[in-house]
Amino acid sequence: MCGIVGYVGYRDALGVVVDALRRMEYRGYDSAGVAILDGNGALAVERKAGRLANLEAELGEAGTERFAGSTGMGHTRWATHGAPTDRNAHPHRDISGKLAVVHNGIIENFAPLRRELEEAGVELLSDTDTEVAVHLVSRAYADGPTAGEFTASVHAVLQRLEGAFTLVFTHADHPGTIVAARRSTPLVVGVGEGEMFIASDVTAFIEHTREAVELGQNQAVVITAEGYRVTDFAGNTEGVHSRPFTIDWDLAAAEKGGHDYFMLKEIEEQPTAVADTLLGHFVIDEKGGRIVLDEQRLADQELREFDKVFVVACGSSYHSGLLAKYAIEHWTRVPVEVELASEFRYRDPVLDRSTLVVAISQSGETADTLEAVRHAKEQKARVLAICNTNGAQIPRESDAVIYTRTGPEIGVASTKAFLAQVAANYLVGLALAQARGTKYPDEVAREFAELESMPKLISRVLETAPQVRAIARELAHVPTVLFLGRHVGYPVALEGALKLKELAYLHAEGFAAGELKHGPIALIEQGLPVIIVMPSPKGRAVLHSKLLSNIREIQARGARTIVIAEEGDDTVRPFADDLIEIPAAPTLYQPLLSTVPLQIFAAEVAQALGYDVDKPRNLAKSVTVE
Ligand code: M6R
């Protein structure tokens, strides 16, 4: 949801800022803009609706001399207030044209602030909530107790703003200084030698430095080439703590590495993503070994006392949460409810001290999930976050965190993060089972060994890519694709349908196969493609035979059946128009394999239709608005 970058140093700021926007474009691509200070008191701004490429073309035509300077900032937008047009693109300027702002988030009290400005005779030029911030700072700088004080003027305004926001300001009278602040949306400082960066995401500056500082809630920062100073919104440093950290991955992880799209690279990275997520979570001890959740701050005693688990998440993370339910209930006998985070807090769920809430979020910034976490904490529940982004807001506000260690996921569609979340969810299930004694240590060890064997099997599933792509190209022009599964195959069907919807803009729906006869079977007509996720024949035989009957039912009605089944499952062959074979795995672990062909399928259909696989229309990677 909007990518923001600021730079102060010795390099050509325009180059640094545009490169950073390119890496953060996954956060939003409705418009892009830059503001560069040339050191002689001139602020050059360019902004353009659409992809960054449009802005680059505009900059190319304008000639870069106007943008020569070593202080600058940039923005890539996912529109909330105001259509994605040139005039709503950031940066926004004040009337003097000397002050500019870029913003991520929503200023919730923008309406009264806008009225106040209009009554004072300020003409607002955009439909955004953002623009109020720049005019308010401009007025605080022009007159009153903070007159002439850039940083103090920003601080004065920050204290008036409600909502979630990251704001970055630059002023032509103060070259070499950038003032920024955050509440509930991300902002990190990149610490270089003789240069400093601020950005929504470390990918913006990883090329220049791996030393970073994560800002806390309601913190402001001033950067100059020499250093940074973190304060609260009132400018105080006392009791204000920010967290320095070293980024443990490099530029290559944030680049496509020879692939046409990040998503394709990220699909291939899945074996490593799962292996890295499991790394160090099982230690050998005198009893043979045990699961350790090293980033957790929940004692075994607490894990024993929970009488209910809620899993809250959105989108693909929610689908991974549905899988958590199967594993946790099976291993621990503790009831698990899985809820869309956007629904959770509005229906007054029953929560108390003995409830464990597991909040799953790749980005760690999803507003719906963050609000669900806050609601759970207000009700005294304990919250365990599963997150891919070090130090993001959701893990910060949770009691404990398990990090999925996939490196940056840049394609908007979740792939490696999803599989890593499934692995992390299962770790939580095993840790609960171990603490509560519902599984013997040797059983826990066996389950962990199964998990550990998955990366190799995922690599083998990747070998099905040519076959899956061929099927995808054949089906690229159909209007509808249905996905069916039972048991753990059902969340996989939902995930397959979501991938196809978001990437290829096709009507796709996932169903629990048993539900088909209760309505959806009416959709089946001659040639309609139905992708079926078959359970293992060696697992619960009843599941397998029931799904086989469902396939027969739809084939009898003319559907084209594309079946994902375990190698050697010959019983399904006569009913499969296309058969994609995956290695055998115990039932609970099969989703780590069966999801992969569905990701490849969706990406290939999207490519065949000529869509941008990494940046599907209307979407952004991190959804920081409710
Ligand atoms: O960052 P999060 O895991 O909280 O994001 C949740 C969803 O927005 C995300 O999974 C979304 O559904 C993906 N685009 C799916 O591919």
From TrEMBL:
> Glutamine amidotransferase type-2 domain spans which residues?
2-226
Q: Where is the active site?
A: 2, 621
Q: List, in alphabetical order, the Gene Ontology terms for molecular function in this entry.
A: carbohydrate derivative binding; glutamine-fructose-6-phosphate transaminase (isomerizing) activity
| Principal EC category | transferase
Catalysed reaction, written as an equation:
D-fructose 6-phosphate + L-glutamine = D-glucosamine 6-phosphate + L-glutamate
What residue stretches are annotated with the SIS domain?
Answer: 299-438, 471-616
Q: Where primarily located?
A: cytoplasm
Kindly give the CDD domains that the UniProt entry links to this protein.
Answer: GFAT (cd00714), SIS_GlmS_GlmD_1 (cd05008), SIS_GlmS_GlmD_2 (cd05009)
Q: What is its EC number?
A: 2.6.1.16
Q: Provide the protein's localization.
A: Cytoplasm
Q: Which UniProt keywords apply?
A: Aminotransferase, Cytoplasm, Glutamine amidotransferase, Repeat, Transferase
Query: Which regions span the lipid bilayer?
Result: none
Outline the subunit composition. Homodimer.
What this chain does, per the record? Catalyzes the first step in hexosamine metabolism, converting fructose-6P into glucosamine-6P using glutamine as a nitrogen source.
Q: By what name is this protein known? A: Glutamine--fructose-6-phosphate aminotransferase [isomerizing]
As recorded in Swiss-Prot or TrEMBL, the protein's gene is named: glmS
